Target: BHLH domain-containing protein
Amino acid sequence: MSSRRSRISEEEIAELLSKLQSLLPEARRRGTSRASAAKLLKETCSYLKSLHREVDDLSDRLSEMMATMDMDSAQAEIIRSLFRP
Model:
């Protein structure tokens, strides 16, 4: 493994930031106006944290629902089928 780092050009960074911006709801609402890289990274971190909280909340809600559900019911089977590969 080489200790040399590959260089990313400013053009590549701009392209990656543009792609990242297109994935963020706040940035999409802003339209085509460009945010600074620092602001975009801050928004990305905030968005990822909110997604993590949402996943945790949904997981808790599903656990609560499953705890009160008859495990032999059709509803329980539907939920189990969602988790099968």
About this structure: DSSP finds four helices and no strands in the chain.
